[in-house]
Design goal:
Order of helices and strands: EEEHEEEHHHEHEHEEHHEEEEEEEEEEH
Structural class: alpha+beta
Strand order of the largest sheet: 6-7-8-3-9-10
CATH topology of the largest domain: Rossmann fold
Shape: elongated
Helix content: 25-40%
């Protein structure tokens, strides 16, 4: 397995820039996820790494070797697509070993690799079955087996669970991560599903309109989003934004929302009067009748151990994740208390996060 290094990668289709000067490194043995909405450039980036698209500019290094303009066949990679693309006239064993047969690999070696891949994927019992009668989950395992037998430097996966239903997808997320832990394989995985990304990735690159908005471990992206887009894209429900107009001096540790003073991490830059947004995760909100920040309960969603309560305020609608044992009635006037050390502050014009003590913690912690 090997490190993948992407330097100033840019791809244009005529006047449209699909990927804009991307830079990131996938460490040896890392499970790396490109995450973003449809059309953000994540699949185009993956296809350039694979050699299926040539970049307009920039470099791609695989194991230290510059492969930017090498054909896909000259790159030691294995690609797993969203559609399984299995051969219906072949059984599982022949499907998994077909690429090795095309390369002229000896039969004994093909059998060894197929048996090993089947053991890893726990599909030894279906090796001699036809693929046409398999479930979606088993077909995905066969597609993964076809990649594993290649013993490549890295695996590239483009929405491999997209064709599965939600129950199978949840199951396969755990299996894919377990497979990665066993193989110690360098993996680049594309998805639009933030739950998949958060549950599997060592690192995530969040893309938006061809740009990488933020790159790092999932815990850092969730706790310290670099932009409103990242804060809104990660989390279910996503981060709440309370809009207000103000100017803040460097060293300030509070914001005024109407009659309420909200404590927050100390800001590390001077902010001229402008449109700002205070960002707070649903789990960092509690109800407190003594709070001057108040709102009217719109409704609640019961989720078993927790409930999501939606509250209308003068600064925007917010969602709070609270214990399901607390009763809240629609229309009730409630006071809101935020966890002061977990709040983010954003410039609404640019969408960027304002530097604060919370982000300093992320840089050093």
């Amino acid at each position: 397995m090997a490190e993948i290094r992407v330097e100033n990668l840019h791809k244009s289709f005529g006047d449209f820039a699909a990927v804009k000067n991307s830079n990131f490194v996938v460490e040896n043995g890392e499970f790396f996820i490109l995450l973003g909405p449809s059309g953000c450039g994540k699949t185009t980036t993956l296809r350039m790494i694979a050699g299926l698209e040539l970049p307009t500019s920039g470099r791609i290094l695989l194991g230290g070797d510059d492969v930017t303009f090498k054909r896909a066949a000259e790159r030691d990679i294995a690609f797993v697509f969203q559609l399984f693309a299995l051969y219906p006239h072949m059984n599982v064993r022949k499907n998994i070993g077909f690429s090795l047969k095309c390369q002229g690999t000896p039969s004994a070696e093909i059998n060894r690799r197929v048996e090993e891949a089947a053991r890893i994927l726990r599909i030894e019992h279906i090796l001699d079955k036809s693929v046409s009668g398999l479930s979606g989950g088993d077909r995905q395992r066969v597609a993964l087996g076809r990649a594993i037998v290649r013993e490549p430097m890295c695996f590239l996966m483009d929405e491999p669970l997209g064709a599965l239903d939600s129950e199978f997808r949840h199951l396969m997320c755990g299996e894919l991560r377990g497979l990665h832990n066993r193989l110690k394989a360098t993996t680049v995985y594309v998805t639009h599903d933030q739950l998949e990304a958060m549950s599997m990735a060592d690192k995530i690159a969040v893309m938006n309109k061809g740009l990488i908005e933020q790159f790092g471990p999932p815990q850092d992206l969730y706790a310290r989003p670099a932009s409103m887009f990242v804060a809104d894209f990660l989390g279910s429900p996503p981060m709440n934004f309370l809009h207000f107009n103000a100017g803040l001096a460097r060293g300030s540790g509070e914001a005024r929302l109407g009659d309420a003073i909200v404590q927050m991490p100390v800001v590390h830059e001077d902010i001229a009067p402008s449109d700002l947004a205070l960002g707070v995760r649903p789990e960092h909100i509690s109800f407190d009748d003594r709070s001057a920040l108040r709102g009217s309960v719109y409704g609640s969603e019961y989720l078993g151990t927790t409930q999501i309560v939606t509250v209308n305020t003068d600064f925007g609608q917010i969602k709070a994740r609270t214990k399901s044992t607390g009763e809240v009635r629609p229309g009730a006037n409630v006071g809101l208390r935020f966890h002061a050390d977990r709040l983010s502050l954003f410039d609404r014009g640019s969408g960027r996060a304002i530097r604060s003590a919370l982000y300093e913690e992320g840089a050093h912690g």
